[in-house]
Structure formats: structure tokens, C-alpha cells
Amino acid sequence: MNFAAAPEAAARSGNLLLGALPEHDFARLASLLEPVQVEVGEVLYEPGGLIHSIYFPHDSLISLLGVAEGRMTLEVGLVGREGMLGATVALGHEVAQVRAVVQRAGRASRMDSTLFRAAFARNPSLQRVLYRYTDTLLAQALQIAVCSRFHVLEARLARSLLITRDRLQSDKFHLTHEFLAHALGVRRVGVTKAASALQQQGLIIYSRGNIEILDVAGLAAASCKCYEIVKEAGEQALATAFE
To answer: Is 70 exceeded by the pLDDT of residue 117?
Structure first.
């Protein structure tokens, strides 16, 4: 599909959250959406900064990083085509609480935050979808916090790779050691050791940031239960949005 030539159709088909809306409710939003391209490493939000725009990813992926003392980070969430960046604006929050960094370049639909807040107030279907989605984000953040405290790095890396795979719907993607170190809150040498362990088990191939998952079931077994919990929460949120 030509994204530039058909922005409304592309916005609806490219993002699952928008696609979950009834057609007439999506039509109310269509004219407010702007197609954009986001690039790897682009910082969309910084903690304490005003949220000027809302993003609905299509084939892009956005990492949500908690930041401590301005430099220490830990990934607390991941936003892909199943959701949106900036959902807390609907709850009255104008200031970002996390650093939002583009993990994979791609397309997204962008909306002015003021216009989004007004649209949210008059669209019950959008309200229902976003309430379910924000519950999912909270569950994801809580589970990752538990995972980071109690589980070994190898299992945490497996969990992170599987979630990324699910968001991108691909067994091949690019993640540098540096990015994974920031996401997992560890040193690069730790990522190297954990990735090497998974590679030696024949679960992945990892070379210069290029990752290929060879054995999904095996990687899931090497991961902790947190992966399944996060995955099931996300699937249930969209599946029950309009019950």
C-alpha cells in the first residue's frame, strides 16, 4: 500500500489500535493524523518534557526507557503497531515520564496532543481501547521491573528479543549491543556474554547487531515467564476492547 497516497487507509491498516476502532469512529480521527517517518535513535520524548505529539506506529518500534540520574536507563515498555505513544495524554498528563527512543525506523501516524485530547473526550470507542491499552502498558512496566530485579540476564535478554520479534512480526531485526545494554540496564559486556550463551545453544545468531532467531520455542524456554505474561496481557487487551 502506498502510505503517502492513501494516508487514511494506511493509518487504519498499519496500526492495530486504530484498526480496532469502528469505521465511523476512526473516520473522526483520520483528518487529524499525519503520516511521518521516524528514524533509529530519534528521541521522541524526554522525561519532564512536554508531550506535543501522539504517535501510532505502523512498522516502526519505539522503546520506552526509565531514566535515573540522567544517564542510567532501563526499558520499561515497547510500543509497536499494536499501540500508541503518548496514551497518558488522554489521562491528563502533559509531561513525559519516560524517554521514548526509536528502536526500529519506519512509518507512524502522528497527531497533535491537544487535538488528540479533544478527540478522546468525544469518542467513547477510542476511550475504551485506550483504557485497555494503558492497562497493558502498566502491566508490561510492572512485569519488566520484577523481571529486572529477580531474573538472570540471559533470560531477560531472551524475553526482550521475543517481545521485539512479536512487535515486528519478524525473526530478523537489528539491535546493537549498546541499545540492548541501555534497555536491560547493564554493561555492554553483559549483553555480549548473554547473547553468546543464547547463540551457543543454537537459539539465535547475533553478529554486529544483526539478530536472527533460529528457535522460537527454545528461546521461549530460555526466557522467564515474564515474556508470556506480557504477551498475554497485550493480546487480551485488544481482543476484549469491544466486548
So the answer is: yes
Residue among 57, 61, 74, 56 at smallest CA distance from 163: 61
Residues 10-48 pLDDT 10s: 455 589 889 888 888 898 899 999 999 999 999 999 999
How many Cβ atoms from other residues are within 10 Å of residue 4's Cβ?
8
Residue that is written with C-alpha cell 469502528 in the block? 22
Nearest to residue 14, comparing CAs of 42, 44, 56?
Answer: 56
Condensed to tens digits (0 to 9), the pLDDT of residues 209-221 reads 899 999 999 999 9
Contact 44, 103 (CB under 8 A): no
Q: Which three cell numbers, joined as nine digits, stand for 131? A: 483504557
What grid cell was written down for 151?
531474573
Residue 137, classified by CB atoms within 10 Å of its CB into exposed (0-12), middle (13-18) or buried (19+), is buried
**Could you tell me the strand order of the sheet in which 53-57 lies?**
34-38, 106-112, 53-57
Side-by-side strand order, sheet with 172-174: 172-174, 210-213, 204-207
State pLDDT tens for residues 128-155.
888 888 888 888 888 888 888 889 999 9
Q: Domains in the chain, start-ordered, CATH in brackets? A: 7-123 (2.60.120.10), 152-223 (1.10.10.10)
The cell numbers describing 129, all together, are: 481501547
170-205 as b/e, with b when 16 or more CB fall inside 10 Å? eeebebebebbbbbbbbeeebbeebbebbeebebbe
